[in-house]
Amino acid sequence: MPFDPKAKISASRERRKDLQIVTDVNFERELEVFRQESEGAAQFFYAYLAIHAAAADYPDVLDLLNRAPMFWTTCAGSLQTASIIALTRIFETNTPHNLGVLIRIVRENPAIFSREALRRRKQGTYLHPPEWLDKFLRDAYEPKMKDFRHIYARVRKCRKIYERNYEQLRHHKGVSESTEAAALFAKTNTRELERLFAFLGSLHGALWQAYFNGRKPVLRPSRYSVRRMRDFPSPERVSVQEHMTREATRVLVSASNAKNNKNKPKR
Question: Which residue from 195, 194, 175 is spatially nearest to 185, judged by alpha carbons?
Fold first, then answer.
């Protein structure tokens, strides 16, 4: 059979295309796992914070909780524990899916953020590119390695915070009944955890926008104060932290039959 260089080039291109598709699938899967884990951890932690903030600021809510203190203490402890367990799944390194796996895919496959890769994803199964695609791609941003350096540095910083302050908590089971674990939880820094969860949400948003919409991967600031999110709701699309804060507060206030002036915090 005669040698056909064009056929060899064509086959090579097909193999590269197949590898790119596999990489895309892997990245999308890891990004979705990361979203689920980070949002789940934030839901647990902000439900826990919202309960305490409502009890501190609404007298009727505090009265409601004190009618069944064991139940509410158990709920709050379970939420606190669940948030740390979810945080562990994000930062541990000996599992198939974690933040380290996601970042490694980004570091080793920068081409998934190229305009050509974006073109392929946006065109999808269409035989011909949509009319709007060329303009969309002209306006798209193709990240450079320096765009990700800040992200890598922030991930390293957050991992050190987790390893220093929270990794040891994952070894405790039934933490609500463990004196040692309770002492460890007492040392946790609420504001530090709020900022950590806000960063995880911003990280997902930056990678998602860069990959699907061709945006520059920027870690945008995110609200994290429970009382500010509760008392000054954002008119725009809210984060999972803000959604949980509002919902937990609304349920507690409603259950306590706080109405009119009683609905206002005592602060």
Answer: 175
